[in-house]
């Protein structure tokens, strides 16, 4: 049973108006296509174990993005630049 602060089911109109925060976060990483592939596989297969190829592709994309971001931050710190 959902807790008092969670809306586990929303009316369709409200769902269309609000952007999913997870989708927004993933879109900023550049891994949205891989994330959607995982979601589509899960919807079709109903078993995450059958979606390991999609999960692995998403994981690799996210890992690569995290490494790029960390390197970017290191470069900024070493150059003394605080602006983005």
From TrEMBL:
Composition bias, Acidic residues: 13-22
SUPFAM superfamilies: Cysteine alpha-hairpin motif
UniProt-listed InterPro entries: Coa4-like, Cys_alpha_HP_mot_SF
Disordered: region residues: 1-22
GO cellular component, one term: mitochondrial intermembrane space
Biological process terms in GO annotation: mitochondrial respiratory chain complex IV assembly
Record-given protein name: Cytochrome c oxidase assembly factor 4 homolog, mitochondrial
């Amino acid at each position: 049973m959902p807790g008092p602060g969670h809306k586990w089911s929303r009316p369709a109109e409200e769902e269309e108006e609000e952007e999913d925060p997870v989708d927004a976060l993933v879109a900023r990483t550049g891994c949205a296509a891989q994330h959607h592939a995982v979601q589509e596989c899960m919807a079709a297969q109903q078993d995450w174990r059958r979606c390991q190829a999609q999960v692995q592709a998403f994981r690799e994309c996210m890992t690569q993005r995290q490494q790029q971001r960390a390197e970017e931050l290191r470069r900024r710190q070493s150059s003394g630049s605080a602006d983005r």
